[in-house]
Each structure stands twice: as C-alpha cells, then as structure tokens.
C-alpha cells in the first residue's frame, strides 16, 4: 500500500535512488538528466501527486522560454546563466503558487525543491541538446519511479 504522504525515509531513499541513476546516466552518456537531484525529486512527486509533476513540466517550459527571451537582451553564460534560469523558475513558480494557493492549498504542501527543479531542467536544456536532455530526464525519472513504486507496492520501503 502506498502511503498518502511520503515519509522522510522514503523521500531520502527516492532522492538517493535518483542520485545513483543520475550518476550512471551522466557517466555513461555525459548527459545531465536535469541535475543530480531532479529525477529523484520528480519520481517522488509522481508517486505523491501527478498534478504537481505536470505543473513542474509547465513551469519548466515557461522558464525555458523566458530564459530564451532574456538572452536576447542580456549576455548570459556560465554562472550568470545558471543564476538567471533558476531565479526565473523560482519567480514563475512563486507566481503560479500565489495564483493557485487558494484554489488548491495542498498542491504546494512541502514543496521547497519544486521551486528550483524547473530551473535545473531548463538550465540543462540550454546547455545540452534539447532532445537528449528531455530523453535523459524522462528515462532516469521513469526508472527511479518504477524502482520506488515497486518498493512501495512490495512493502520493502519504510512506512513509518
């Protein structure tokens, strides 16, 4: 049985599995799947609430498009690009949060990383080939999700 709210232990295991799969992906393909913590966090989000995962996808697209627009007016590279992309994601996610918090108050429960993850994915979309980045993020997240769900359904994950 899947717990209604993921415990801190399950969250730590999910992030650890994501780190392992992300490292394997990076070492074998030289592609970052949206950052090292992103696939683990996305898999945990998919386990808990698919609406939040869809929201992350939407904010990632908006962040990428806003960054492309910003780059037409400002020279961004290296650390400045990283800071600009992540800050853009946080601002967009905060705006979405302010709009949706009254209608869907539980959508953002314990959602700290959710403000940063879209920026990490959008940053990798800027640095790497887009198709390869989307494929690596999707594959590593899906593998993490399958392992996490199997562990939850088989009852081998700590539930308390």
From TrEMBL:
The keyword Translocase does not apply. Keywords: Membrane, Transmembrane, Transmembrane helix. Pfam families: Caps_synth_CapC. It comes from the Bacteria. The chain crosses the membrane at residues 12-32, 52-70, 82-100, 106-125, 132-157. This is Poly-gamma-glutamate biosynthesis protein PgsC/CapC. It comes from Streptomyces polygonati. The lineage of its organism: Bacteria, Bacillati, Actinomycetota, Actinomycetes, Kitasatosporales.
């Amino acid at each position: 049985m899947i717990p209604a709210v993921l415990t801190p232990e399950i969250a730590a295991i999910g992030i650890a599995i994501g780190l392992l799969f992300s490292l394997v992906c990076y070492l074998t393909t030289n592609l970052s799947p949206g950052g090292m913590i992103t696939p683990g966090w996305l898999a945990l989000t998919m386990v808990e609430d698919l609406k939040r995962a869809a929201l992350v996808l939407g904010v990632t697209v908006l962040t990428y498009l806003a960054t492309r627009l910003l780059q037409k007016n400002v020279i961004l590279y290296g650390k400045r690009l990283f800071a600009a992309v992540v800050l853009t994601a946080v601002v967009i996610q905060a705006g979405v949060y302010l709009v949706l918090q009254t209608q869907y108050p539980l959508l953002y429960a314990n959602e700290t990383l959710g403000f940063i993850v879209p920026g990490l994915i959008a940053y990798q979309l800027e640095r790497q080939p887009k198709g390869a980045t989307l494929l690596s993020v999707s594959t590593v997240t899906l593998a993490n999700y399958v392992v996490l769900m199997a562990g939850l359904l088989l009852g081998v994950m700590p539930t308390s």
